[in-house]
């Protein structure tokens, strides 16, 4: 029998990768929220630079309790909803299930390890530009790679494990580029090298990435924030080279004009992933004696903006 996949969090990321797996003939089961009835009646559509996909019928669920136990669960739920993850995962996780966390920021894998019975937990860091256009309708603009790394409870490099190879192979067959990393902590900080300079800055300034890179002052701010992320990684014993910073600047120069998820969330009055992308890195570095001054400033500003969206007191108040 083939691998049964569960998608928890069927927004832009979950639907894009789930659609790629369906297209390759895999058994995929999606947990939807507000889009459930629409997808059940009208199917799932992905407009992609790699070729459009439309599936008139998919395995769509409105409640996690109705889903089957799955072999591999891709968690694409935003970290703002991590407090409900245990109840969503319980019906789909069996004794040999592997969970791949497709989230930004730090600390998510540790939460899963503490609150689920999954045999293997991996981080999946997505290098992809895709957005949700409407119910059951996703647009994929550019890229698509997932970097996989296995979680170690002591935050040590787990190496390239057999589980990583087993999960990577069918994803690659589905046309999803995969890179394997021996060190999840390093991989997370390297992803933050882009997310910290651009996700929150684009949200606060309501400006897409090309506008940030096109202004000398905001461009310099992005560079300075990357250097802070470099220092944050070093506080956990991980080295990110100066050359990698240059690569990230060049990469962002070359990409299409892009509105990151936090910018879209702010525009639509949705809660932003402030704690996982900004709060946890700031606190982690602080515990190790490193003060990320500019990142903490962004964190404080974004916390206030998030509190207005939430209409509740900011974290830690």
UniProtKB/TrEMBL annotation:
The record, for Gene3D superfamilies, names:
N-(1-d-carboxylethyl)-l-norvaline Dehydrogenase, domain 2 (1.10.1040.10), NAD(P)-binding Rossmann-like Domain (3.40.50.720)
| Species this protein is from | Desulfoplanes formicivorans
Gene Ontology MF annotations? 2-dehydropantoate 2-reductase activity
The record places domain Ketopantoate reductase C-terminal at 184-303
Q: Which domain of life is it from?
A: Bacteria
Q: From its record, what is one biological process in GO terms?
A: pantothenate biosynthetic process
Q: Where is the Ketopantoate reductase N-terminal domain?
A: 6-152
Q: Which family does it belong to?
A: Belongs to the ketopantoate reductase family.
User: Mind telling me which NCBIfam families this protein's record contains?
Assistant: apbA_panE, PRK06249.1
Q: Does the keyword Oxidoreductase apply?
A: yes
Q: Does the keyword NADP apply?
A: yes
Give the protein's recorded name: 2-dehydropantoate 2-reductase
SUPFAM superfamilies assigned to the protein according to its UniProt record, in alphabetical order: 6-phosphogluconate dehydrogenase C-terminal domain-like (SSF48179), NAD(P)-binding Rossmann-fold domains (SSF51735)
Pathway(s) it belongs to: Cofactor biosynthesis; (R)-pantothenate biosynthesis; (R)-pantoate from 3-methyl-2-oxobutanoate: step 2/2
Q: Which GO terms describe its cellular component?
A: cytoplasm
Keyword terms, alphabetized? NADP, Oxidoreductase, Pantothenate biosynthesis
